[in-house]
Structure formats: structure tokens, C-alpha cells
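Supplementary Methods, section 5.1.

A reviewer requested that the exact input to the structure prediction be made available. We therefore reproduce it here, unchanged from the version used in the analyses.
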Amino acid sequence: MRSKSFDGMVCSIAGVMGAIGDRWGLLILRDLVCGISRYEDFRKSSGITNATLSDRLRHLETGGLIERRLYQSHPERFEYHLTQKGWQIAPLMPVLAQIGDRWRASGASSPPLKFIDGKTGSEVEWGFFDRKSGKPVNAQDIAIAAGPGANDLVRWRLSHRDKKKNETRQHRVRTGKKE
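The structure derived from this sequence is encoded cell-by-cell as follows.
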């Protein structure tokens, strides 16, 4: 069952999630990034049902993330390819995979995928970097601030973070714990 649309929500994350659709949409995008492009190959890769796969492919196409290309006329058969917009989601794949590796989510004894620089062959890892200095930034050190497109609801969400910070600081003062 599909959940309601995120239309009208001022949230970039919700907008991307709405374009992807659901977990099946994300797995289809994973497969496309890996080079899979045909219907039966998507089925083999994920075990997805025909009805769900057809629905998700239509959703991703409507959202502009993929495009269909005819590769056989009789009977008509299509391949699916990432659009430029769809390729913008590709960086999520190593991030999700490497988090899953840290959690040992695949059940494999070691990571099932390696991400490498196609030019040098060196392994790559995701991370955050300060735009000015180029230095790495720990995820725990990243702060979130309202951007120029923030509305009242976004600012309300962020006010909870500030409230929690103050409560944590007060708790540390009361208990004598250092930050």
C-alpha cells in the first residue's frame, strides 16, 4: 500500500523520497546503477512481483528518474535507463551500502560490494567535507540550520533540536558531566 504524497511539504528529503517511491524503487535504482536495465533482470535481482515492479517502474519514469527505451519490436520489450536526474541518486548507493556493511546488515561475513575510483582503482568511502578547508567532518559534528527556503514548519522542526541541545547542556551541568 502506498502512503500519501509528500507534495507541498517543504523538505528536500521528502521530495527525493517521494520521487523514489518506496524501498522497491530504491532497489530498482540500485540495480540500474549496477547496470541492470531489463524487466526480467530486475525480477531476478530483487524477487519483486510483476505487479509491484511494473508499478514502481512507472512511478520512477513519471518522476523523471528513469526512461524506457525500446530494444525489441515483436513483442515490444523495453530497457530502463537512469536519466540525468536519476544519476543524481547514485551517490546514495555507496553511502547506504557502507552503512549496511557497518551494521552487517547483509548477513555476509564481509562487504558484498566494493566502491572504487574508476580511474585509479582505489577504494572510496563516503564522507562529509568542509567546503572551505576541504577537511573531513564527522557526521556527529554536522549542524543543521534553516536555509533560505525554510518555512515556519522547517524552523519549528529545527527548534526541537535547539531545545534538546539546551536540555542536554542543562543535564550535564546538573550531573557534573563534561561535554
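The radius of gyration is 21 Å. These observations are discussed further in the main text.
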